[in-house]
């Protein structure tokens, strides 16, 4: 057992002026002694781990948000494209359908590329 006591000042409802930690110190950092729990290096490590976890959670939520936002943004365009496709399919003779189909496919390709760009561009900075 160390002769030093932890120098961490702790606050609780019973001592608003603070009370030093009662545990025995195990490590000295820059002239002050600390127990395992209050060792600044340990505290920093725990904080970093917590930040990492929060960061990962934030990134997951953010990329979910981007996907939902993009889906909302392009919902109308996609529905219109499908409606046009269905219209073309039901109303137009089969030769003409093939012609308009290739136009519609170009539109669809364009919308899909836009969507990919939006989700990739904003998602990529969050990749781990
Ligand atoms: Zn302590």
Summarize the structure.
With 128 residues, the chain is an alpha+beta fold. It has a domain at 59-122. It is built from two helices and four strands.
Helix and strand topology:
Blueprint lengths: L8 E4 L2 E6 L6 E3 L2 E3 L5 H52 L2 H31 L4
Antiparallel strand pairs: 1-2, 3-4
This protein binds zinc ion (ZN).
Characteristics:
128 residues, alpha+beta, two-stranded antiparallel ribbon, two-stranded antiparallel sheet, 12% strand, rod-shaped, binds zinc ion
In percent, how helical is the residue content? 55-70%
Helix/strand-derived class? alpha+beta
Taking the sheet with the most strands, its summary is:
2 strands, antiparallel
Q: What is the number of beta strands?
A: 4
- What is the C-alpha radius of gyration, as a whole number of Å? 31 Å
Regions with pLDDT < 50 over 5+ consecutive residues?
none
